[in-house]
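Continuing the batch. This is chain 6 of the set; chains 1 through 5 are on the previous pages. Same settings as before, nothing changed between runs. Recording input and output for traceability.
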Amino acid sequence: MRVPLSWLREYVDLPATETGRDVQAKLVSAGLEVETVEQLGADLKGPLVVGQVLTIEELEGFKKPIRFCTVDVGAAGGTSQAFGSGEDSGRPQEIVCGARNFAVGDKVVVVLPGAVLPGGFAISARKTYGKTSHGMICSSEELGMGDDGTKGIIVLPPQHEVGTDAIELLELVDEVLDIAVTPDRGYCLSLRGIAREAATAYGLPLRDPALLDVPGPNAFGYPVEVADPLGCDRFTARTVTGLDPEARSPIWLQRRLQKAGMRPVSLAVDITNYVMLELGQPLHAYDRARVQGTIGVRRAEAGEKLATLDGVTRTLDADDLVITDDRGPIGLAGVMGGANTEIDETDGTTTEVVIEAAHFDPVSVARTARRHKLSSEASRRFERGVDPLAGAAAAQRTVDLLVLLAGGTAEAGVTEIIAPSAPRTITIPADHPDKVAGVEYGRETVVRRLQEVGCDVYGQDELIVTVPSWRPDLTDPNDLAEEVIRLEGYENLPSTLPKLPAGRGLTGRQRLHRRVGRVLAGAGYVEALNYPFIGEAVLDQLGIDTDDPRRTLVTLVNPLSDEEPALRTTLLPGLLSALRRNDGRGSHDLALFETGLVFRPTGREAIPTRLPVDRRPTDEELATLDTALPRQPRRAAVVLAGAREQAGWWGQGRPADWADAVEAARLVAREAGVELTVRADQHAPWHPGRCAALYAGETFVGHAGELHPRVVKAMHLPERTCAMEVELDLLEAAGAGLPTGPRISAFPVATQDVALVVDKFVPHTDVEAALRAGAGELLEAIRLFDVYENDDQLGEGKKSLAYALRFRAADRTLTVDEASAARDAAVALAGERTGAVLRG
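Output for chain 6:
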C-alpha cells in the first residue's frame, strides 16, 4: 500500500516538521511494515511552468516526426538562462519536440533551461535537428509522475494560466510511504486505516472520511436481489444520471492515484479507485444503459461464461460468486467486473451509472481469485477483510464526487440489502494482556488502548469488548492482548531468556539421526532435502497397488500445490525427483540420501481439541492431541544411478547396482548396532528379481534393490536406478545403542573353505544363515567368494556356492580338529535346512 504523506495529512494533523522518515518510525513502532519512504521530486529544480503552444512547424528530412514549436510561457520566458531580463521578458520559447499528441492552443508543461529533472537531468539550450531548443515539453514519465496512459506529453486542461508553477500544480514534490500490509491487517489497505494508525501513534484525533451523511434505503433504488446472503451480506446500489461524458479527472485526482501506484483511466473509474484507496471499500460502476433488469448476486452455474474487463473469457465454477443481470453474469463478485457493462470512455456515451458497494465473503473471493488466477486490487482487500459498514459511506462518497466532477445528479433512490448480523463481542480479563506480555499495564491502559483501536469496552475486572467492524481479525482475548502490547510498544517489552534445563543433550533418536547422516555422507552420498508433499500421480508412477498402505494419505486442507495435496508416505518420490532433475542437468553419477518423517495414518485419529494458552496443557490434554496425529516414523532412504566407482588409470570403474543399495542399508543399520538379514522379496517399486527385504532379527525394517524398469520409464530416470529405504525407529528399537568396535583377539585365525551344491532357487542368504548358526560361537566371519553354475558338472538346476569361514577363539589357539568340527557342524545344518551337499 503506497501512502502519499500529503494525502495522509488530510485526515491527521501531523506536525508540520514531521518527515516521511519520522512517520515511518512511528508506524513501524505501531507494528506496520513500512518498507521504504520514496522522496518524490527531491532532486527536481525549476523553472517548470504551464505553457501554451502558439505555433507548430513540422521538420522534414528526419527518420522520425520532429516538430519545432513556439510556446508562450508567460513571464518565465525572461527568467531562464536563455534570455536576460528587460525587453526579452515574456518572450515565447522555441522548443524542438517529437511528441504528436498536442496541437496549437494546447496547454502543456514546459521545463526551461537551468532546470533539473528527476534523476539529475539538467536542462539547457541546445542545438538539435538544425534548430536551437530552449527547454523541453514534458511527459509524465520525464517528470517522475508515472504512467498516465497517454504515452505522450502532458496536455493540461485549458483553465490553467500560462506561467503557472507546474511543480506546485502537479504536486511533484511529496513523500510516499510504501507499506507491506500483512494478511491480518486488511483495514490498512486504505488511507482511512493508515490514518487511524498514525493518529493513534501520534496521539492525535482522526478525521474519519467515512463519517458522511448517508440517506437511508428506500423503495426507489435500483432493483437488487441477493440469492446467497452468506456470500454477500451487504449490497448498496446508488444511481447517478446526467454525467458529462466529456468530463475528465482533475489533476489532483490523477496525481493521488499515480502516487498510490494506480494509472488514471477515466473519471468514473478513477473516482471508484480513489474511494477504494481512501476508505478501503472496493466499488464498481456499471453503465446503466448496459445493465438489463435486476442486479443479482448468486453462485455461478458450472460452465457459464464471462468476459472480464481484462479481455479474457472465463469458464465459471459452481463455487464462484457472480453479479448478474437478466442476461446472466456481468461480473466476478469481489474480483473483477464484466466487459459487457463497463463504462466505455472511447465513444463518450455513458451518462448514467449504477454504483455497487457490496461486502463479499473473504474465503469465496480468495478461492475465486486463485481459481481463475486473477488477482485484483478489489480481491486483495476482500481477502483480507473489508469493513462491512463502510459500503454505504463509500457509495455516498462516490456519488458526491461524480456530482462534483462530472456534473451529474444523484437519484433519490437508495438500495441497501443487509443480512441480519450482530456485533462481535469478546470477554477478556482486564489483566490478560499483563499475563501475556509479562508487563503490568493496568486496567486503565488496557481500556484506553482498546478504545483507540475502535472497540467499545465495558466492565471492571472482566471486560466485555465489542470489536469494530473494520477489524475482522480480532476474534479472541489473545488478539486483544496483542493490540494492547502493540500500541504500548514492542520495544518496551523486557527481554527475558528462557532457562534451559542442563545436562540433557540430544536424545538417542537424535544421535542416531546424526550418525546416519554422517556415515552416508562419508560413503559418498549427498543429502537432498525435499518437500514432504506428494500426489496420487507419483504413486501411480511407482506402481504401488491401490490396497497398499502407502496409498492411505493425509490430505492437506490448504496445499501449496494442487498436484501434491498430501503428506508423503515414503521418502522415495522426493529423492527420485531430485535424481531425475540432476541427471537432466548433466550430473549422471548420482548418490543421494535423505532422512526424515513420513506420515502413515492409522484411521483411528481423533478430532483434535484446542489447547489452552493461559497455562501449560495437562498430560492428558497432550495425549489427546497426540491421538489426533498420524503415525510419523523417521526413515532413511538412498537412490543411486550412474557409476559407483569411476574408471581411471587405476582400472575399470563400476556402475551402481542393487548390492550398493543393500550395502547402504547395512551402513545405516550398523550405526544402530544392528546386523541386517537380507531376504528376497517382491515389493513395488523394486524389480521383482532384484528386491531385498531387510530384517533386524525377525523385525522387518525396509527394502533395497533395483527399481522396476516400468518405474524407471514412467519417472524418466536413468537406467538401472537403485534405491533403499529403512525405518530408523525400528532399527533403533532393535539395536544395542551406540555401535561398538570389534574385539581384537591375540590368537591366530583358522580359515576353512567349503563349496556347497544347492538348487538354483535356494537363496545365498539362507545358506549363509544356516552355516552361521551351525558353526557356533567360534565363527568370526563368513564370506561368499564364488558362485559357479555348470549343468554338466553339477547337474541340471544346481549351483555351487563357495564360502570362506574364519574361526577364532578368544582365549586360545584353535586346533585343526576344533576348526574342522565347527565347519562340519555348519555344513551339516546347511544340508538339513537347504539340502546343500559338499561339492566333490
